[in-house]
């Protein structure tokens, strides 16, 4: 993986390697909010960082990412759903890659992908995925959508659960380090909410904003998780 993902050598075998990654990835993860980390602290602006990564190299890395995350980052609706990156907040993507590097998110595949990327390449990839806008897959149970909309917009006051829109925005677009949920794959979101504590915030010495979601995820029952995931998966 390190040789394939070296910023200085995109390689002609990247798509074959990406297909192999997809076949073995059992715990794909891209959902949640992680604290803004070392990339911004480096003092580089988004435009400066992106400009530092050659366009041809960025194109090669995007092609590699698309082998698992689908054309234009639309996601992969397979046995192990792989999340949509299209339209995602740039700071969120950067933070998540850093979280994989620091083992605050547990996914060996994504660690291997992320730890060889330069800060400039990470910024360039995040900005490119932010610019994509393929239509959502859909496919969620339509019967859950109305309930999911109610929970997303209004929360569950009787259970002391705040509205999802309070952080993710009324259109579920997110902002800064808060992720976009609009158009995200339904089975991926259900999986992420169910496994929140097992996949995020693993580095206890470096607590991050994924902790904000932990009590919320634990407070939702299975049907409520499915309803919220169904609703946001329909949003464009």
Task: Give a structural overview.
The protein has two domains: 2-131, Orthogonal Bundle (Cytochrome Bc1 Complex, Chain D, domain 2), CATH 1.10.760; 142-233, Cytochrome c-like domain (Cytochrome Bc1 Complex, Chain D, domain 2, Orthogonal Bundle). It is built from 14 helices and no strands. The protein has helices spanning 2-5, 14-24, 38-41, 46-52, 55-69, 90-101, 108-114, 119-131, 145-154, 165-168, 186-194, 196-199, 210-219, 222-233. Helix 4 crosses helix 8 (119-131) and helix 11 packs antiparallel against helix 14 (222-233). The radius of gyration is 17 Å and the shape is globular.
Short description, anyone?
With 236 residues, the protein is mostly helical. The protein has 14 helices and no strands. Residues 1-50 have low confidence and may be disordered.
Question: What topology emerges from the helices and strands here?
Answer:
Elements: H1 2-5, H2 14-24, H3 38-41, H4 46-52, H5 55-69, H6 90-101, H7 108-114, H8 119-131, H9 145-154, H10 165-168, H11 186-194, H12 196-199, H13 210-219, H14 222-233
CATH topology of the largest domain: Cytochrome Bc1 Complex, Chain D, domain 2
Q: Tally the helices: what do you get?
A: 14
Mean pLDDT score: 80
- Classify the oligomer: single chain
Low-confidence stretches: 1-50
Binned strand content = under 5%
Which homologous superfamily in CATH is the superfamily of the largest domain? Cytochrome c-like domain
How many domains make up the 3D coordinates?
A: 2
CATH architecture of the largest domain: Orthogonal Bundle
Give, in order, the helices and strands: HHHHHHHHHHHHHH
Please outline the major beta sheet: none
Structural class: mainly alpha
Q: Helical amount among residues, as a percent range?
A: 40-55%
Amino- and carboxy-terminal Cα gap? 34 Å
Tertiary shape = globular
Please tally the β strands and state the result: 0
**Radius of gyration over all CA atoms, rounded:** 17 Å
The CATH class name of the largest domain reads Mainly Alpha
């Amino acid at each position: 993986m390190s040789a394939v993902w070296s910023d200085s050598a995109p390689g002609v075998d990247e798509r074959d390697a990406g297909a192999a990654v997809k076949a073995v990835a059992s715990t794909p993860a891209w959902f949640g909010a992680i604290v803004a980390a070392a990339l911004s602290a480096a003092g580089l602006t988004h435009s400066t960082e992106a400009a530092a990564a050659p366009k041809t190299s960025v194109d090669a890395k995007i092609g590699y990412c698309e082998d698992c995350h689908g054309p234009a980052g639309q996601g992969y609706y397979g046995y192990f759903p792989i999340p949509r990156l299209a339209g995602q907040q740039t700071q969120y993507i950067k933070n998540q890659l850093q979280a994989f590097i620091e083992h605050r998110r547990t996914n060996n595949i994504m660690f291997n992908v992320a730890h060889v990327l330069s800060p400039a390449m990470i910024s360039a990839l995040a900005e490119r995925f932010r610019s994509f806008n393929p239509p959502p897959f859909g496919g969620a149970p339509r019967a859950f959508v109305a309930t999911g909309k109610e929970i997303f917009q209004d929360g569950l006051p009787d259970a002391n659960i705040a509205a999802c829109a309070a952080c993710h925005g009324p259109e579920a677009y997110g902002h800064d380090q808060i992720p976009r949920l609009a158009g995200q794959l339904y089975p991926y979101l259900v999986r992420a909410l169910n496994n929140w504590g097992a996949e995020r915030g693993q580095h206890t010495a470096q607590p991050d904003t994924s902790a904000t979601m932990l009590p919320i995820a634990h407070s939702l029952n299975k049907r409520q998780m499915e309803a919220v995931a169904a609703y946001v998966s329909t949003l464009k």
